[in-house]
Structure formats: structure tokens, C-alpha cells
């Protein structure tokens, strides 16, 4: 009789442990995932395209390397456009945009080479 009661309690406790919600495993990345906008809003998977676009553009404008890069968002798919100095900067911009909550994909249309500010300087000095 004691064995049966002991066995029932072990099964009950084991069942209760397995019924709990699974614990997430792995590295949690928080760099841009928890972006809080200037107006105090926090991005989530349900954020609108305009909120996401504003957050990505604000995040990119923090870095002078991305001063000529702009993001547009349609149905949570991001398109990056503009000019940068080299390929590494292009890939860093794509990576930064991809790390925002709600981004489904990033299409990188950034051109590598001469930037607008450099062209303006060259054209004014040639005159």
C-alpha cells in the first residue's frame, strides 16, 4: 500500500514538472531588440511599419557611417537605400536593421562608393 502511494506521488510531481511552460534556452540579444523611440514607444512584433521605419532610421542616424542610408518598411520588410564608403559599412547597416523586433527581412540596395557629401565637396572645389 505504501509503495502504491509513493508511486502515485512521484507520478503526480513528475507530471506537474512536465506540464510547466518550457524555459527559453540560448543567447538573448537585446541590443536593438528593445528599441525605445523618442516618444517612449517600444517596438514589438505588432509595431506598425511607420514605427519600425522611424526606429530603424533613428538607429542608423546614430552612426555617422550611415548618414546617407535610409530605410523604408512595407509589411515589416525593410529596404535600405543610400550610399556608403565600403562593403563593411553596407553589411553593418544591414545587420543593424535586421536586429530590430518585427523585421521579417532586409533588402540591401545600398550603393558602395562615392558618397553625396564627397561628391558635393569635389564639385564645389572644381569650380
UniProtKB/TrEMBL annotation:
Keywords: Signal
Species of provenance: Koribacter versatilis (strain Ellin345)
Lineage: superkingdom: Bacteria
UniProt name for this protein: Phosphoslipid binding protein
Signal peptide: 1-21
Occurrences of domain BON (ranges): 48-114
PROSITE patterns: BON
Disordered: annotated span: 29-50
